[in-house]
Design brief:
alpha+beta; Elongation Factor Tu (Ef-tu), domain 3; OB fold (Dihydrolipoamide Acetyltransferase, E2P); six-stranded antiparallel barrel; four-stranded antiparallel sheet; 3 helices
């Protein structure tokens, strides 16, 4: 009797425990289909972008280079905002100052030589003028004596007719006339010689002055050259913008300019971009460049602030391709064409030259079409399928595909807007790793 009573008590309890345990296990175990990720079929405009990396650059910029060689002894801060006339670079002028002092002395000596020689020319002219006056006075005196002697000769010849003088006296007077004529000719010759000597000496002295003037002008040019070099040793900003140091060759390697660097003329040292109008330089793969056209819209996101969306348009497309370089975040060996995107708005506080950006150039927009993620497509041969979510699980559905971009593909038929499709094959076990299958050939973007 007692045994039956215990059975009546224990049996219901055991049944209840078993039922509870069974229910808990059944409740805690999830349906495997519920863990399959899905996505809704979207309908709207479908964009086909060319997605590349780019760098910000100013639409306009000024490149600063030195006009003289020398060593940088003082330098402004990189990144500083400058306005026209602000200090940028100071080149060492110690050797130039010494050269300036030497050339100032040379120029002054040349000027002194000119002044000295001009004084000598003035003295020479006075001396020559005095000699010419003396010679002319002697000539005038001899002419006067000649005239007196000729008058005496004429008187003696009249007296000879009257036999008041002898023939010998007349002959003597004639000889004196010839002597006076000879003295006059000598004086005329002396005057001519003195004039030629004066002209020659003054011409020589004037030539010396001209040579000294040329030397003085040369010294002045050399002096002005040093003064110009000293002025050019201080480089100032020609325009407003932000200071960006350029890289120069430093004995075996490239590096940004620093104090102590030896620089040479025409070296690009600093770039001052105008931050009020910025562009994005994009290296587009040569296989995709045929899709890019001027005027196409573009969306830009900065690496420094991915939450901010910038808008722009294609403004320039280079005519030649160039090989990629690793420091440009491109694949070495591949060919790229540079495309310039003009930004609609520029914020100098946010946008700085050299910033990296992700750029989507919208090459084509297909209006009002259905699209799904690429992960939802499964291909078998040339046929594409999706797994459509239904009330009882997933249904394998054949679909016709259209164009695609990096993440989505257009679906022409087979599904409807709002449908849910699996993002992985729900028939595979979780532990299985499906091998990727390419989409069937068709109008997809290559």
């Amino acid at each position: 009797m007692k045994r039956n009573l215990w059975l009546l008590v224990i049996l219901p309890v055991c049944i209840a425990v078993i039922a509870a345990t069974s229910g808990f296990w059944k409740w805690g175990k999830k349906n495997p289909l519920e863990t399959v990720p899905t996505a809704h079929v979207q309908k709207g405009n479908f964009e086909i972008p060319v997605r590349e990396l780019g760098k910000l650059k100013a639409e306009k910029s000024v490149t600063i280079s030195a006009r003289i060689p020398g060593k940088i002894i003082r330098l402004c801060k990189e990144g500083a905002e400058v306005k026209p006339g602000d200090f940028l670079i100071q080149i060492d002028t110690s050797d130039m100052v010494r050269t300036l002092q030497e050339r100032e002395l040379d120029h002054q000596n040349a000027l002194n030589e000119v002044l000295k020689t001009k004084g000598e020319l003035d003295s020479l002219r006075l001396e020559n003028e005095l000699k010419i006056k003396q010679t002319r006075a002697e000539l005038d005196h001899n002419k006067g004596l000649l005239q007196e002697t000729e008058e005496t000769k004429a008187r003696y010849e009249r007296l000879l007719k009257d036999r008041l003088v002898t023939q010998a006296q007349c002959d003597e007077i004639r000889l004196k006339v010839e002597e006076k004529k000879l003295s006059v000719r000598k004086s005329e010759l002396s005057l001519s010689v003195e004039k030629r000597k004066a002209l020659s000496s003054e011409k020589n002295k004037s030539g010396q002055i001209e040579n000294l003037n040329i030397r003085s002008r040369i010294q002045k040019v050399r002096l002005d050259e040093v003064r110009t070099q000293i002025r050019e040793a201080t480089i100032k900003a020609p325009a407003a913008g932000i200071v960006i140091f350029k890289e120069i060759w430093k004995g075996g390697e490239q590096g940004k300019i620093t104090e102590g660097d030896q620089i040479f003329p025409q070296f690009a040292l600093i770039e001052i971009p105008d931050l009020t109008k910025m562009n994005v330089a994009v290296k587009v793969d040569e296989m995709s460049i045929h899709l890019v056209k001027a005027g196409q819209p573009a969306r830009i996101k900065l690496d420094a602030d991915p939450t901010r969306l910038l808008l722009g348009k294609v403004t320039e497309i280079a005519t030649l391709a160039s090989e990629g370089r690793f420091w440009e975040r491109t694949a070495p060996g591949k060919k790229y064409v540079e495309v310039v995107i003009g930004l609609e708005k520029s914020d100098p506080k946010l946008l700085k030259p050299g910033m990296s950006a992700n750029v989507d150039i919208i090459t084509r927009t297909i209006p009002d079409v259905l699209s799904i993620p690429l992960e939802a497509v499964i291909t078998e041969g040339k046929q594409a399928f999706v797994y459509l979510r239904t009330s009882s699980g997933f249904e394998k559905r054949a679909v016709a595909l259209g164009d695609k971009n990096d993440n989505f593909v257009v679906v022409k038929k087979g599904i409807s807007k709002g449908d849910s499709v699996a993002l992985k094959d729900p028939t595979r076990k979780t532990a299985e790793t499906p091998s990727p299958t390419p989409l069937p050939e068709g109008p997809q973007k290559k």
